[in-house]
Specification:
The complex is a heterodimer. Chain A is α+β, with helices and mostly antiparallel strands. Helix content of chain A is 58%, strand content 14%. By secondary structure, chain B is an alpha+beta fold. In chain B, the strands form 3 sheets. Chain B has a 6-stranded mixed barrel with strand order 3-4-9-6-8-7. Chain B has a 6-stranded mixed barrel with strand order 14-15-20-17-19-18. Chain B has a 4-stranded antiparallel beta sheet with strand order 13-21-12-22. In chain B, strand 7 and strand 8 form a beta hairpin. The longest helix of chain B has 35 residues, at 408-442. Classes of the chains: A alpha+beta, B alpha+beta. At the A-B interface, helix 3 and strand 2 of A face helix 3 of B.
């Protein structure tokens, strides 16, 4: 099923949401991604991904309190749903399995 | 402080755009994010950059998932409401019959002109569209310069150009050579008919798309003496189109018919009755003309090139530059360069000399479009003005609509759709008008008749509807916005608080623009007409009265003269090689004492009767004394300008008699000096002219002086005589005066067109003004009555009511008249070497006429209001 597969960037965003816990809204996610990956995350792209994750049911969102910083506009906070958690765990498992199969010496140099 | 605050905000329009397109559930979050970024950028990158980034981001967020979907309910509401809009529009049209009449008639009159212009321009744009490879076809254009004389731009080029391109230059898919002058008498068995066509090389059909009925396109023009006919000419010559293999004798050469084409579309710049293979021209003409293949023989050949797809035509130009640079070394004193002209710019493009087919300069199209737009706008202004003036009444309707729940957008849609409905209604009226105008326009001038067909196609109908909708939107735009801003509560509580007259200045400005344009048009046509009449009345320096010029068309003049002389109506007959004052020129280089000083002198070859018949005035000397044979002449008659140019005998006509000048190696003695006269049209300055003797000019003219006053029956008997001598060619004759009038026909066409547009724009502007006057007097009826009760007399009331309008008219006259005067004085009349000064009469006539018309309208309405019984008016409240 197309819906359950996670793209690379989708996975990154989802992980970031999970990592930020209660503070995951669009701009913060962008900043965090930039800080960790070192590449610039465009707001438009992140927004589109958040929208897609929402459609897939991997995240849910709710509006927070209004503050003065954003011209009085409320923030939309994202949290990972259980389906999202399952997807993250599944993709980690896939990776772990593959990691386990790699003989040590091949990656030793690194 | 306020503006500083404003500055720290993201651009307003971008915010508005975002909230317009964005889905409501996503909007707040997006706005917040953009604001947050904006604040960051404000600190790090400065205000300008931050605002820019914000705007860019707004566009970046325009994605499928953010865009609001048109909901079914909205669509449904708009759909249902359209019915209501139509109903209310219909009601308001019927309720105010006078204003609706003014609107619809004004729009339909102006739109009929618009339709005509659309049909005309779309015909011009679709010229040569039937060629399948039209985008890849280019014509070689030649630029020729002799010594330091002005450069002449020619559509024609040399045969050598074509041959060199075929031999040497790569990058061209096909090259076709054409040559004009394939014309003559076609003899089939016993019958003889004139035929007119082109020489064309064998690749003609590879470049151009002319479908063949019979014959092989690949070989039809290959062999010498091949002839391709069109359906029409085949039927004309043979009575059938099944003519392959038959023989046609054109003048002296026998041609075999190798193909029959479907008739040529009207919108083709190449027009011919027949095509003869170019290889024939090479055989026939090479013998006759030693310079047939010369680099400077650029006067009657045409080269068209077909480039491969995706070819870089601009880069290919360097090949032409190299070619002309190399070849031009062989021709001393002359410079020839070549350029490429795309097929689509041949008809609608620069006018070249020696061109095949018609040509219209783009600026002519711009002027025509400008005129149409001007009068359509004028009608739109009427609509705008009258709608806003009626606002008082409609305002309540809008108020109710708003209270029931209409939003701004819906009110705008309502009023725009109302004006579009009216415009479509006007379209229905304007279509018959257009059909009428079309016949008038086509019959204005032979040139227009040949240029365009103005046939109605489905594409044209679509354009018409687009025009009507556009006109509707333009006309309804301002009223729609005006009404959409109405405050519902205020309107319903008390209409008098509604500031309908807030827009008064705009309405005044529109009236001034309307009248200024009308005045410019009408004054232009008055001045133009006066100048045109002056051109016709100009003293040419010789007489043209009752002279009939008959083109000889190759017939023997002595036979014709013998027959014509027997007619009692014919007074005298002379011969000439050309007709002066119609815009054509023949010249020869002449020299006087200084062998290095030569100049072109315009020339007419005439017999001994020419100068007396035309009553040319001799300053000194006599008419031709000798009657030499061709090529043996020794006499010349010149005008004053020749003496002036070469300083012959210190410009003394009497002493100049007997002086010798050299013309094309002939030594000619001046036997007479004529007073200066107009050889060219009034556009040209009088230049040196000479007459030489010739007793026989088979391609020239007979000038027949007629004594009878019954010109019609005389023309008929002359035509009978012509038929006796030449049964093949129809007579080509015209009275000199008529021919001169024809030579200025372009000018008279222009005057007619502008005059007509001026007339229409006056009608439209007057109707608009009338509507405004009726409306203002109606709304001020109570005020008038009260004033009357208080003792105002009629005169002062009329003055009060009409003052405002008269000021506007005076203002537009003050703008229009100087503008028109300057237009003529500094732009148009500069092109005419001989013209009368602009008279006050024709400058003021238009303004006075319009002023009177407007005064009558204003006067009649205000008088009606002023005469009304105040008791009647004030009683009913």
């Amino acid at each position: 099923m197309k819906g359950t597969n996670l793209g690379e960037f989708e996975e990154l965003v989802l992980l970031t949401i999970a990592a930020l816990v209660n503070d995951a809204y669009s701009v913060a996610i962008c900043d965090e991604l930039e800080k960790i990956t070192g590449r610039s995350a465009k707001l438009g792209v992140v927004h589109a991904v958040l929208n897609r994750l929402d459609e897939k049911g991997l995240v849910k969102s709710k509006l927070g309190e209004a503050t003065s910083t954003r011209g009085g506009k409320r923030k939309r906070y994202y949290t990972v749903t259980s389906a999202g958690k399952a997807a993250l765990i599944k993709s980690r498992e896939v990776r772990d399995q593959l990691w386990d199969k790699i003989p040590d010496l091949i990656l030793k140099r690194a | 402080m306020m503006s500083k605050q404003q500055q720290d905000h993201p651009p307003k329009w971008a915010e508005r755009f975002l909230s317009w397109y964005c889905r409501p559930e996503l909007l707040e979050d997006l706005q917040g994010d953009l604001n947050e970024y904006f604040e960051r950028n404000l600190k790090t990158k400065g205000i300008k950059k931050a605002r820019l980034i914000y705007s860019i981001d707004v566009f970046k967020f325009f994605r499928s998932y953010t865009v609001r979907k048109p909901t079914f309910v909205n669509l449904l509401i708009n759909w249902i409401m359209i019915g209501s809009y139509i109903k209310t529009s219909g009601r308001s049209i019927v309720r105010n019959k006078l204003l609706s009449f003014i609107n619809i008639i004004g729009l339909s009159i102006s739109m009929s002109v618009g339709l005509l212009v659309i049909a005309f321009v779309s015909d011009l744009m679709s010229y040569d569209d039937f060629h399948e490879k039209k985008d890849r076809i280019y014509r070689i254009t030649t630029h020729y310069q002799f010594l330091e004389e002005p450069v002449i731009d020619l559509a024609s080029t040399s045969v050598k150009t074509g041959n060199k391109i075929r031999e040497n230059l790569s990058g061209v898919e096909e090259m076709v050579l054409l040559r004009n002058g394939f014309s003559g008498d076609a003899h089939i068995n016993e019958t003889t008919l004139p035929i007119d066509g082109l020489w064309a090389s064998e690749s003609f059909f590879k470049v151009f798309t002319f479908p063949m009925l019979s014959g092989d396109q690949r070989t039809a023009l290959k062999e010498p003496y091949s002839l391709v006919l069109t359906e029409k000419s085949a039927t004309k010559l043979f009575g059938t189109t099944d003519v392959i293999g038959k023989t046609v004798k054109v003048d002296t050469a026998n041609f075999t018919v190798t193909g029959v084409l479907k008739d040529i579309p009207k919108l083709s710049h190449l027009r011919f009755e027949a095509l003869a293979s170019f290889s024939t021209a090479e055989i026939l003409l090479n013998k006759k003309d030693a310079n047939f293949l010369g680099w400077d023989n650029i006067w009657s050949n045409y080269v068209y090139l077909l480039f491969p797809e995706n070819a870089n035509v601009n880069a290919w130009q360097t090949n032409l530059d190299k070619l002309s640079e190399k070849e031009s070394k062989s021709i001393p004193n002359k410079k020839i360069s070549l350029t490429l002209t795309p097929l689509k710019e041949i008809v609608l493009g620069k006018k070249y000399h020696n061109r095949i087919g018609p040509s219209v300069a783009p600026y002519v199209v711009w002027i025509i479009e400008g005129l149409a737009i001007a009068i359509i706008l004028s009608a739109c202004f009427n609509y705008t003005n009258l709608s806003i003036a009626r606002a008082l009444r409609r305002a309540r309707e809008v108020g109710i609509r708003k209270i029931i729940g209409a939003v701004k957008g819906q009110v705008i849609i309502q009023f725009i759709s109302e004006s579009v409905i009216i415009a479509l209604l006007a379209l229905a009226f304007s279509f018959p008008l257009f059909l009428f105008l079309r016949t008038q326009f086509i019959s204005l001038d032979k040139f227009i008749l040949e240029l365009v067909s103005l046939d109605i196609s489905s594409q044209l109908i679509v354009y018409f509807i687009i025009l009507a909708v556009t006109v509707g939107i333009v006309a309804g735009f301002l009223p729609a916005f005006f009404f959409s801003r109405i405050n519902a509560i205020q309107v319903l509580k008390n209409t008098s608080t509604l500031k309908i007259f807030r827009r008064v200045n705009m309405r005044k400005a529109l009236i001034v623009v309307q009248y200024t344009l009308s005045l410019i048009f009408i004054t232009t046509s008055f001045i133009g007409y006066k100048q045109y009449k002056d051109f016709l009345r100009l003293d040419l320096g010789f007489t043209t009265e009752n002279i009939l010029n008959i083109k000889l068309q190759g017939n023997r003049s002595d036979l014709l003269i013998k027959e014509l002389a027997e007619l009692p109506e014919v007074d005298q007959i002379s011969k000439s090689s050309m007709i002066t004052n119609l815009g054509s020129f023949y010249g020869a280089h002449i020299k006087y004492s200084n062998p290095n000083d030569s100049a072109i002198v315009w020339l007419n070859m005439v017999d001994e009767n020419y100068l007396p018949i035309h009553k040319h005035r001799f300053l000194a000397g006599t008419n031709f004394l000798l009657r030499p044979k061709k090529g043996e002449e020794s006499e010349v008659i010149v005008n004053e300008q020749v003496l002036k140019r070469f300083d012959i005998a210190k410009r003394d006509p009497v002493k100049a008699i007997g002086e010798v000048v050299t013309v094309d190696k002939h030594k000619l003695t001046i036997v007479g000096v004529l007073k200066d006269f107009h050889y060219g049209t009034v556009e040209e300055k009088i230049e040196p002219v000479m007459f030489r003797y010739s007793s026989d000019e088979p391609e020239g003219y007979l000038n027949v002086k007629i004594s009878s006053t019954d010109l019609l029956s005389t023309s008929e008997s002359i035509e009978r005589v012509w038929k006796k001598i030449d049964n093949v060619h129809p007579i080509d004759a015209g009275f000199y005066d008529d021919q001169i009038q024809m030579a200025y026909n372009q000018f008279s066409v222009m005057v007619k067109v502008i005059g007509f547009i001026g007339f229409l724009s006056i009608c439209i502007a007057s109707m608009g003004l009338f509507g405004m006057v009726v409306f203002t007097t109606e709304t001020r009826l109570k005020e008038i009555s009260i004033r009357k009760v208080l003792g105002a007399n009629e005169g002062s009331l009329i003055y009060m009511l009409s003052k405002g309008f008269l000021i506007l008219l005076t203002l537009s006259a003050l703008i229009a008249l100087p503008a028109t005067y300057l237009l003529f004085d500094k732009v148009i009349l500069i092109n005419f070497a001989y013209h009368q000064p602009i008279g006050w009469m024709e400058l003021l006539a238009g303004a006075i006429a319009i002023g009177l018309l407007a005064f009558m309208m204003i006067g009649s309405q205000t008088l009606k209001a002023a005469r009304s019984n105040p008791a009647e008016v004030l009683k009913s409240e």
